[in-house]
Design brief:
Blueprint (H helix, E strand, L loop, with lengths): L1 E6 L4 H13 L2 E8 L3 H11 L3 E4 L2 H10 L6 E4 H11 L4 E4 L7 H9 L3 E4 L2 H18 L3 E3 L2 H10 L6 E8 L9 H5 L3 H4 L9 H9 L1 H14 L6 E5 L5 E7 L4 E5 L5 H9 L13 H4 L13 H12 L3 H17 L7 H12 L8 H22 L1
Parallel strand pairs: 1-2, 1-5, 2-3, 3-4, 5-6, 6-7, 8-9
Antiparallel strand pairs: 8-10, 10-11
Helix pairs in contact: 1-12, 4-5, 5-6, 6-11, 6-15, 11-14, 15-16, 15-17, 16-17
Bound molecules: NADPH dihydro-nicotinamide-adenine-dinucleotide phosphate (NDP) and magnesium ion.
Length: 383
């Protein structure tokens, strides 16, 4: 039995992870966490019988605590509760499937404790890549990416790392791939929430529409595979069948192909380094017909350009990019910011940032907080 903790079990990745666990068997769920979805987490507790359940939203915590008071499991509150549960349990794998920067502290804690991490939460590695790398070197814990592109790269890379030339990240281009700047200025949250190929949580769906998602993934790839930014390419591939590629020094390109189904990279992260079968639908290339590839347009999608610039600058810029983006996406979803104002707001926050070189986790969390306040301030200044 592989003992696991699943953070963000009520989300898109979280629920699909539980589907994979049901399919594969051989896993014992020790820890579950959610933010506000009390009904679903209570159902999950009854089904998986974990040792700990953690709610990161206070009112939801009080409600779940009351409703589960007759069970023997421990109901805890907040990120502190998650950290406490990680320390108290003997785990084989942590799956970080929460959204946003809330994944930073639990992921770092697991790595420090020597627990391997299946990482869906890319914001953690964008905001705290250097700290994650440092902790990983110290404890030897492994990070197995769940993000489909990085899972694809890992699978293409495993046998022959030394000859690696470039990483090629594929991007669907999102719902507005062919929109002009004028059309982009008018898109609504409802339109942006309709992704052509993937069904995901709200934040990552908006990130996909702005192409910030691909930008975050460029930074994610830099840290996960120790590749310089110059050797990370992005290509638009509207069919989302090729999940990413690795170009070797001899000119050969290895690609990972499959249906756009997150359960496959989730399964690989759960069974790594082994590959097992499943009953999920399989790819039939003759039904797909054609696979297309185009260069990205950084003029129409400046978030991608911003992410490259920030990644190359390093220091604490990526933390600021990530936090400002989270605020901008939330403002857009509430109807308070236009689509094109998302990169504008992020850029303004980045301009105000005084970066630091040598930082610890507390410094980073302070900077994350500053960037969120600054983003709110810049939003008010936009008028
Ligand atoms: P969802 O929005 O569907 O789910 C987010 C999960 O995190 C929910 O369980 C939610 O709880 C919980 N959560 C929300 N806010 C907080 C908070 N402040 N603190 C702690 N937990 C919180 O997101 P996704 O599943 O789509 O994405 C999760 C992560 O995986 C993201 O980092 C995303 O970038 C990454 N990812 C997702 C992919 C996808 O296909 N969905 C693909 C590749 C990467 P509740 O439901 O109770 O509110
Ligand atoms: Mg991805």
């Amino acid at each position: 039995m592989k003992k696991i903790a699943l953070l963000g079990s009520t989300g898109s990745i979280g629920t699909q992870t539980l589907e994979v666990i049901d399919e594969l068997q051989g896993f014992k769920v020790q820890i579950l966490s959610a933010h506000k979805n009390t009904d679903l987490i209570i159902q999950q507790v009854h089904k998986y019988n974990p040792e700990f359940v953690i709610l990161t939203h206070w009112d939801s915590f009080k409600l779940v605590e009351e409703r589960l008071k007759d069970l023997s499991l421990k109901v805890l509150y907040g990120i502190e509760g998650i950290l406490q549960s990680l320390e108290a349990t003997d785990l084989d794998l942590l799956i970080t499937a929460v959204s946003g920067a809330s994944g930073i502290r639990p992921t770092l804690k697991a790595i420090e404790l020597g627990i391997d991490v299946a990482l869906a939460n890319k914001e953690t590695i964008v905001a705290a890549g250097e700290l994650v790398e440092r902790a990983q070197k110290k404890s030897g814990a492994k990070i197995i990416p769940v993000d489909s592109e990085h899972s694809a790269i890992m699978q293409c890379l495993e046998p022959q790392r030394q000859a690696l030339g470039k990483i090629i990240l594929t991007a669907s281009g999102g719902p507005f791939r062919n929109y002009s700047k004028e059309e982009l200025a008018k898109v609504t949250p409802k339109e942006a929430l309709k992704h052509p190929n993937w069904n995901m949580g709200k934040k990552i769906t908006i990130d996909s529409a702005t192409m910030m998602n691909k930008g975050l993934e460029v930074i994610e790839a830099h840290w996960l595979f120790s590749v310089p930014y110059e050797d990370i390419e992005v290509v638009i591939h509207p069919q989302s069948i090729v999940h990413s590629m690795v170009k070797y020094g001899d000119g050969s390109i290895l690609a990972h192909l499959g249906l756009p189904d997150m359960r496959v990279p989730i399964q690989y992260a759960l069974t790594y380094p082994n590959r097992t079968t499943n009953s999920f639908p399989k790819l039939d290339l003759t039904k797909v017909g054609k696979l297309e590839f185009f260069p990205p347009d950084m003029e129409r999608f400046p978030c991608l350009k911003l992410a490259y610039e920030v990644g190359k600058k390093g220091q604490t810029f990526p933390t600021v990019l990530n936090a400002a983006n989270e605020v901008a996406v939330e403002l857009f979803l509430q109807g308070n910011l236009t689509f094109l104002e998302i990169p504008l707001l992020i850029e303004k926050v980045l301009e105000k940032h005084n970066p630091i070189d040598d930082y610890c986790l507390d410094d980073l969390l302070e900077i994350d907080k500053w960037a969120r306040i600054e983003a709110e301030r810049q939003y008010l200044l936009l008028g």
